[in-house]
Amino acid sequence: xxxxxxxxxxxxxxxxxxxxxxxxxxxxxxxxxxxxxxxxxxxxxxxxxxxxxxxxxxxxxxxxxxxxxxxxxxxxxxxxxxxxxxxxxxxxxxxxxxxxxxxxxxxxxxxxxxxxxxxxxxxxxxxxxxxxxxxxxxxxxxxxxxxxxxxxxxxxxxxxxxxxxxxxxxxxxxxxxxxxxxxxxxxxxxxxxxxxxxxxxxxxxxxxxxxxxxxxxxxxxxxxxxxxxxxxxxxxxxxxxxxxxxxxxxxxxxxxxxxxxxxxxxxxxxxxxxxxxxxxxxxxxxxxxxxxxxxxxxxxxxxx
Length: 304
Description:
- This protein is mainly α and 304 residues long.
- The protein has helices at 11-37, 43-66, 73-111, 121-149, 152-164, 179-199, 213-232, 238-264, 271-296.
- The mean pLDDT is 92.
- Residues 8-304 form the CHAD domain.
């Protein structure tokens, strides 16, 4: 793996340093997030903290998956499961809010208007329907987040990460191995899985199909795992980050398209509303295709 940290440093040294760094980021973000919830920090700071919290949780969980053989396995499996739960729970509220904002902006753009008052009747009604559905989903996600953050389960996770910030439970044998003998081959497994998933994608420039979204989402997940593995080893990740951004756009557009299609299936909506939702769905499908082409232009993702 080009750019990896190798030499006399042991596998345990490298993995431990990375995990402790991410645990510190997690705890710092958690403090700001709690201050924001209590009104001691602004909404912008709270939003940044929530993103940092999710990012650190993902990185720790991903590293415990990729480099499981180097960690104490039962501890790694338990903490990874809890961090995946936490990251997913925290992401839902933001996702619904971002989806609504994206769809409302698209409706304004497609109708050629600069404000809600000048929207066409169909677009206005479509927007109102989407706002009701997604605001309800966001409210439920917000309640789930508050419930999670107040739970004993979350406090147990936070306590485990606090311990991780100072001490990483490692396998005593694997941790003494050289980076190039232990960590690099494990990271290459993650790369191989990503390469296989990319190869399994539909042919380039094939017609859009929502049935293919699952395969693309899996590539996004595996790309993130591969990127975090390279990051832990000190490898170059700029190209992987750019490819990840393209797949983030793909995910956002595909989920927005699904939301507009769900709204269009609402019983007894007016034909003009259904038409506006159909146009919106087609617009988001085009965004999906653009994101796919953008990602395809970056393959292969990185040198060996």
